[in-house]
């Protein structure tokens, strides 16, 4: 048993010692390691993004990042009389597509630093907030009323961004690496279409519906981080 464990340790050490960086024609796939710290232990969220790279040469690569996500959050508030208001938030289905180009520098045998540029395109679906049995869209224990309801629905959104990035990959074994990245956003534009707000102040009141205003934002320059990544060469 000891001999087997010793051989396995030598094999692992050998794979780490001779880990090779990718060359022309290689492809990589990687995901973010989404660790979060809370009041207790460290938590891990499943990755919502996948990044693929293709090496045009030993020191240059094109890449594309895909992202897909949606979330639902539900909570409740009780009044002194025991009436319960419920609040449900649903984010619209979001899709991101980010193509880019990387120039890799010499580094070391296992460390591959790089710099590059990327263009981001983000599409967001309609997000909704539904509130029932409450006297306001943001109920407190004293504002809960039987039969009242609110529903806010945002319009779909479009975002476009342009940025520079720099990072490094460290090959811990042959074909396996961890990496980190930082970015500088040069330009970012977001536009959201019109939405609607529907409300009923009590079970007997008439339903009212209003339209929210379309809006857009533009931002120049901003620092972003790409987190820690785990990747594989194939």
Describe this structure as you would to a colleague.
This protein is mostly beta strands. It has one helix spanning 2-17, and strands at residues 27-32, 34-37, 42-45, 49-57, 60-69, 72-78, 84-90, 94-104, 111-124, 128-132, 149-153, 157-173, 176-192, 195-200, 208-212, 215-219, 222-233. It has one domain (2-233): Lipocalin (Beta Barrel), CATH 2.40.128. The protein is built from 1 helix and 17 strands. Strands 1-4-5-8-9-12-13-17 form an 8-stranded antiparallel barrel. Strand 4 and strand 5 form a beta hairpin. It is elongated. The model is unreliable at 1-17 and 39-46 (pLDDT under 50).
Provide the descriptors you would attach to this structure in a database record.
234 residues; mainly beta; Lipocalin; eight-stranded antiparallel β-barrel; six-stranded antiparallel β-sheet; 1 helix
Short characterization:
By secondary structure, the chain is mostly beta strands.
What is the strand and helix layout of this fold?
Blueprint: H1 2-17, E1 27-32, E2 34-37, E3 42-45, E4 49-57, E5 60-69, E6 72-78, E7 84-90, E8 94-104, E9 111-124, E10 128-132, E11 149-153, E12 157-173, E13 176-192, E14 195-200, E15 208-212, E16 215-219, E17 222-233
Antiparallel strand pairs: 1-4, 1-17, 2-3, 4-5, 5-8, 6-7, 7-10, 8-9, 9-12, 10-11, 11-14, 12-13, 13-16, 13-17, 14-15
